[in-house]
Amino acid sequence: MIKVNVIAVGKLKEKYLRDACEEYLKRLKAFAKLNIIEINEYRASDNPSESELETVKSKEGEAIKAKLPKGSFVIPMCIEGKQLSSEEISAKLEDISIKGFSEITFIIGGSFGLSEEIKALGDLRLSFGKITLPHQLMRVVLLEQIYRAFSISNNSRYHK
């Protein structure tokens, strides 16, 4: 069974987001071993300079790097990443597994995104479009798409 990690900056604060994530985590148990790794979010001033934003992303990046499993296929979520359909994500996850990876790690940055260093560590940069989502909601969307991808691969009725 493939292992899927989600490294996410910040904690889920709202109950409805925690509940949604728990539902997808429960559903995913049939397909993969899932592990959520939360990284502390660093704060910036109300009107941060570009330098301050880079410092925040760099600190979060160091914490992310420390949690990245060795030998994992790394997928940072970033707006400039590749946009794939649900079917294409499903095929990509299958392909990753066929290529010998037993572990996939998705990375969700904090409020200011991911550092260039973390993006550069990725084997595939992935985007769910040009819209901006709060990073906490992004976790729910990502888990749903991972579940949908496995459902497609397993010919489940979930994906219509």
Descriptive report:
With 160 residues, the protein is α/β, with parallel strands linked by helices. The protein contains five helices and five strands. Helix 1 packs parallel to helix 5. It is globular and about 50 Å long. The model has no long low-confidence stretch (mean pLDDT 95).
Low-confidence sequence ranges: none
Q: Going across the major beta sheet, what is the strand order?
A: 2-1-4-3-5
Radius of gyration from CA coordinates:
15 Å
What shape does the CA trace take? Answer: globular
Alpha-carbon distance between the two ends: 25 Å
Q: What is the averaged pLDDT score?
A: 95
Class per helix and strand makeup:
alpha/beta
Number of helical segments? 5
The major β-sheet equals: 5 strands, parallel
| Count of beta strands | 5
Please write the string of helix (H) and strand (E) elements: EHEHEHEHEH
Beta fraction: 15-25%
Query: What helical percentage do the residues reach?
Result: 40-55%
